[in-house]
Amino acid sequence: MSSTGFKGSFELISQHGEHEQVVFCHNKDVGLKAIIAIHNTTLGPALGGTRMWNYKTEEDALIDVLRLSKGMTYKAATAGLNLGGGKAVIIGDSKTQKTEGLFRAFGRFVNSLNGRYITAEDVGTTVREMEYVFAETPWVTGIPKAIGGSGDPSPYTAHGVLMGIKASVKEKLGTDSLKGLRIAVQGLGNVGFHLVEYLAKEQCQLIISDIDQDKVKRVADIYKAQVVAPDQIAAMECDVFAPCALGAVVNDQSLTKFKTQIICGGANNQLAEARHGDALRELGILYAPDYVANAGGLMNVFVELEGYSPDRALDKTTQVYDNLMRVFTIAKRDQIGTHTAADRMAEERIQTLGKVKQSHMGLSHRPFATLREIKNR
Ligand code: NAD
Q1: Options 3.30.70.100, 2.60.40.10, 3.40.50.10860, 3.40.309.10; which CATH number does 2-69+87-140 get?
Q2: Residue closest by Cα to atom 12 of ligand 1
Q3: Is 172 annotated in the active site?
Q4: Which tens digit of pLDDT belongs to each residue from 123-147?
Q5: Which residues surround ligand 1 with Cβ inside 6 Å?
Q6: What is the tens place of the pLDDT at every residue in 220-246?
Q7: Which residues pair with 29 in a beta bridge?
């Protein structure tokens, strides 16, 4: 990477968290410039999606992939999955520069890692491109259902968030039922729409908001929800605020407005900064750390690796309940915010299992053979 240079790259890598391996992928013929970052494989192969983005500089792309891959390590670890953390970025415009050749070339780089890194969709990539990747490597998830894939993860993410809301309500309000609780859902996209569907079945009082008025109208008509403007939803008096749109919804401004007891939703990176998690604790608002609450989608692709079954995937997402309860227990044990407790829970699992795996006990079975078998049929 010419603009960063070797020295700069290594400095960035050590600044962003002790990654095991960073692979720069280049193919001039198809215009491929990509970076695969493998953060930690103590628990298993590194899994994380491929983001295609028009980064301003190569350094921006490197920083993004380092940050995102570390996040995947923590997400997989707290989800109780035998997966490590990794991520890939392709530098380019996803609207104009996607070609079969580009993704086939990228797939060959993924294949060269021989299962240490498994990819999936992310911002700027879809099932279609994963099918191109699959033509070159079995180490890809999120492929079409017709060839053994798991399809759209958002219903599973939403089901996991529902389990997260149930755990948070149990912890904060001491009840098992969501009936009659006021729940404010921000964002009615893939995850938010399915979450509203689940919450309506639980007979919650729903407050909804989206910047897209067609989505608002559709959901309000079906579920008789109270509609509020996008700049009002975070300030609504409610039991649970469920962010399912943007990141950084917990920030200096919103902290002064919240009238909720619990924050639990599907959006990534809900805290603008870690200190905002501490502020929620001081305010007595229970925060369900985003990467624990929204791990249902990752659980779904994990099941794809074992040989996909929708029922098993849905069943797996119920584990979000216990995972969050464990986070809450650590937060109370150590007198810390739940966001710090989640990080601690991930680090404890990685440390413990890392030690367990140190002794040689003979060869274990080869996991995740299914995709390879499908491909070789
Ligand atoms: P999406 O794009 O389908 O939905 C986002 C919705 O938020 C859109 O309807 C958009 O109009 C709305 N929105 C944007 N700005 C808003 C605002 N200011 N106020 C209210 N609504 C606003 O995305 P998605 O797949 O539903 O994902 C939602 C969030 O969950 C993202 O942060 C994503 O990273 C995260 N997430 C998604 C999955 C998944 O399975 N899709 C898994 C894990 C995490």
Answers
A1: 3.40.50.10860
A2: 187
A3: no
A4: 899 999 999 999 999 999 988 888 8
A5: 153-154, 157, 186-192, 209-212, 215, 230, 244-246, 266-268, 294, 297
A6: 999 989 999 999 999 999 999 999 998
A7: none
